Each structure stands twice: as structure tokens, then as C-alpha cells.
Amino acid sequence: MRYFFTLTGLIVLISLPLFAQNEIQPTFEDTLQVYEDLFGLREPLTLTLKFNIKEFQKSKRNEKYHKAEMTCHVREGFEVKHNVRVRARGKLRRDICYMPPFWLNIRYAGIEAEDLAEVIKMKVVTRCRGASIYENYVLREYLVYQIYNLLSPYSFNTRLVRLKYIDTGRKDKVSEDWGFIIEPEGLMAERNKAMAIKSDKLSLATVNKEWMDKMAYFNYMVGMCDYSVTGRHNLKILTLKEYGPTGFIPVPYDFDYTGLVDATYAVPEENLGLTTVRERYYLGKCRSEEVHQKTIDWLASHRDEIKELILSFEYLDERERLEMANYIESYYRESEQKSFIGRRIQPTCR
Q1: How far is CA 37 from the centre of its chain?
Q2: Staple partner for 259: which of 6, 97, 100, 278, CB 3.0–4.6 Å?
Q3: Which domain holds residue 291?
Q4: Of 115 and 295, which is predicted with more confidence?
Q5: pLDDT of residue 25
Q6: Are 301 and 250 in contact (CB under 8 A)?
Q7: How much is the pLDDT for 185?
Q8: Ramachandran region of residue 286, left (φ > 0), alpha (ψ -120 to 50) or beta?
Q9: Are both 128 and 32 inside the same structural domain?
């Protein structure tokens, strides 16, 4: 089964009776959007979510769903609506965030398209707190996902969203924020002709060596020290259905604790001996110097692409982009040193 759609198309599909209420009738091209890839387009979605945010915030630590009305603004004069449900998610951010990330559940939205039969919910990341720096964290985390998309097909695609909230619990108070939607695990697995593995008893020895090394060096570069194959902590695990790399393939996610995002609430694991998440720590498998160097060279071959991705990201101000690019460059300068493997990789590899 193929999961090939856009959120705009999804709404068009399930909201056809609403078209008669709009001044601009949908064209044939509009209906074709049903078949577009939600995560293949780079321009942001423009969405409005109307629900009782006050009640949502009170109950964010439990599993309660809240009814919401979502409006997709397709273009000027053309918007469509349907009913969804939202629920807070995340362990730490449910405790510390005024507006935690949430699940966008479309299970009971009346979707009849066969291709969407197994799509139940999607993760949405939004601003944690009101201060402007938290909006930067959202955009920076989105860029971390985009960087790994450059490096691996075994990665979660994302779509930037301009969100308007209407809080029915506060007399329809309106606010706007940046957010992004994360590709559901099932879609990501299907796109890669793979299946998701749910076991928490895997070890480094069970995963594909090449992709484990690539992921570990990526995580080192962006300052990600909060992951583990065992327990699938901030990792999903794939097994391919068809010919390809042998062994399980790790897919990282949840990057708000990286040095590249540098959130004020992010702290390193106590047992690593680090004082800040900006410090790098290698958690990959121990290999020969030759194998390590091969992975270092692979990551170096993407240096210009990564820099261009960051510096051309128009929704983040120039100072933030330069700071992110400089953090990435600090890894590349370090990795070019002759003592890099012996001084920074071998002492902490597993």
C-alpha cells in the first residue's frame, strides 16, 4: 500500500461538500493535490487549529484527546476544514512546555481514500514557550531533520507549517507560531520498502554497520548524545523488505536536545561527564581507523550541501543561521585533525 498524499489533498478529499461554500471553486489541479507528497514540498503549509487550548494545557500530562477544527488555507479565497483531534506528547516537553508538541489525529475525520486507511496520526512540533527564542528552537530542529534527509533516505521527512491557533477556552484568542509535521513511521518505512521493528532488546551488534556508523557521526556532528539502539531511545529501527543493506537500520529523531539546536532546557546525560549539549560525544561502535576515516570522508563530501541548506533557510534570521553553520564547521575543522580519531572517537566508542 502506498502512502502518497498531502495534507491539503487529504482535506480536499474529505471536505468536498464544503467547496460550494467558497467563492473560488476548486480546479482540476486542486483535486490532483490529493496525490502529492505532503513531505515532498518545501513551501510551508498554512493551517489554523481551533480548539480549547486552555483545557489542552491543563490535561497535557494525561492521554486525553481534544476535539479541534482544522482549516487548511490552500490559497486566497480557498480554504477547507475538517475535524481532527489533538493530544499532547513527549515526556520532558509535556512537563516544561506551555504548548507541548502534540499528536494530530485524523482517524475519525471521515477519510475514505484507500491509500490513507492506515494513517491515524502525525506528530506536530510547535513552540514550547512564549519567548521568541523558542520559535528559533522549532526552526533549528526542523533544519536538523532536513540535514539528515540530505545524508540518508532512511530518515524522517518533515513539513514546515505556519500555524494559527484559535483558543476557544480563552474567548477565541488568536496566536501564530511556526511548527512542523513529522512523517509517520509507517509512511517512512513504506517509502523505504521496509518494516518498522518494535523490539527494545536490540544492540549495536544487530544493526547495519555502515548505517550505524553514518548515523553516529551525524549525531556527533550535530551534538546529539541522547540516543540508544537498546530501548530504541530517540531511534526507530527498520528492516528492509527487498534487496539492500543487511541488518537493521537505525533512524534518528527528536533533535531538540542537540548542540545544534542548543535549547536552554537541554542538558547532557550525567554519566557522560559533559557540562553542556554543545560538547560532542561519540556513541557509535568502535571500528578500525580505516573504517572510521571512510565515514569521516563520507560526511565531509556533504559539507557544502549542509552549509548551503542552513544558510539559505529564509525563515530563520541570519544570525541564527550563521551560528548553526559555525557549529557544523567546528566539527569539520576538528575532524580534519590527524589526532581526531584517537582523541575524540576511540575513547568513547562502544
Answers
A1: 16
A2: 278
A3: 193-345
A4: 295
A5: 54
A6: no
A7: 94
A8: beta
A9: yes
Instruction: Report how far apart, in Å, the C-alpha atoms of 148 and of each of 61, 97, 130, 145, 156 are.
Output: 31, 26, 28, 5, 8
8 A C-beta contact, residue 345 and residue 296: no
For 148-182, what is each residue's pLDDT tens digit? 999 999 999 999 999 999 999 999 999 999 999 99
Tell the residue number behind the cell numbers 542552513, with chain if given.
310
In angstroms, rounded to a whole number, what is the distance separating the alpha carbons of residues 302 and 309? 11
Distances in whole angstroms, Cα of residue 264 to Cα of each of 23, 37, 137, 276, 277: 46, 34, 9, 10, 10
Domain boundary among 131, 162, 187: 187
| Strands across the sheet containing 249-252 | 194-197, 235-240, 249-252
- From 187, 204, 225, give the residue that closes a domain: 187
pLDDT tens for 274-321 read 999 999 999 999 999 999 999 999 999 999 999 999 999 999 999 999
305 residue type, one letter: E
Count of CB atoms situated within 10 Å of the CB of 112 = 8
Cell numbers linked to 86 = 489533538
